[in-house]
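Quick sanity check, AraC-type DNA-binding protein:
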Amino acid sequence: MPHATRPHFADEARFFRSPALPGTELLAARFFRHSFAPHWHEGYVVAVITAGAEGYRCKGARHVAEPWTLACINPGEIHTGERAAEQGWAYRVFYPDARTLADLARQMRPGSCGAGLPRLPQQVVRDAELAQALVRAHLLLEADTDRLEAQAAAMDALCALLARHGGEPEAAAPTTASRHVATMRERLAADLSEPLTLEELGGCVGLSAFHAARIFARESGMPPHAWRNALRVNRSLPLLRAGASVAQAASACGFADQSHFTRHFRRVFGVAPGRWRA
């Protein structure tokens, strides 16, 4: 007798925002077929797995987040995402911008005036109580029936995340290579619509095209064009949020056309920009 095929999740995702938690995008999603190519965000990622399991690579290690665990990504960290269970995975995700968590961390320690961003753990966070608090806050933000309650729940949960699992800002001493890459990133970000060659990029730090590409990929974890495309996607969010059309956002952020923009946006967020905008 043939074995019954175990049902899997259908790919579905909903992005939304709440006036109760400004500076934060929110996602409720289930994925089976979709996988996330290497990408990064300018803000944080705080994902609570609610069913199945998600596998992801970050900073050279692979992790598997199971139900009622957290996958946390810091600003700028390149990561992937794919199913690590037969049925796929379901999760609820907070995307707070860097200022939101930094301000919250300072409010929690009013006597401190340290610079830098708080660090969330690289390893999967196994804290079921915190996971449940974050999901409850996420549901309240989505329902939007009592913004005061939703805001209090979200603040409490994010404060608990920082208090229990947050780390001090990284203070690594800059190297020659990291300074070169920082300068090249500034050049890539200066005008997202400007065509650039590796010769031009290397020229701004006195390197050949070959050495510029090699150093950038080694320090950043991805080649210059891929890093720039991820930046373009990140920079499209405030435009879409302000009501720009998908075509307008694509043009303003330097994508060749709307389909090119949509393809890269979907790789980062799992949905098309038109659905995110809605």
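Posting the structure with no commentary besides this: Residues 147-165 form the longest helix (19 residues).
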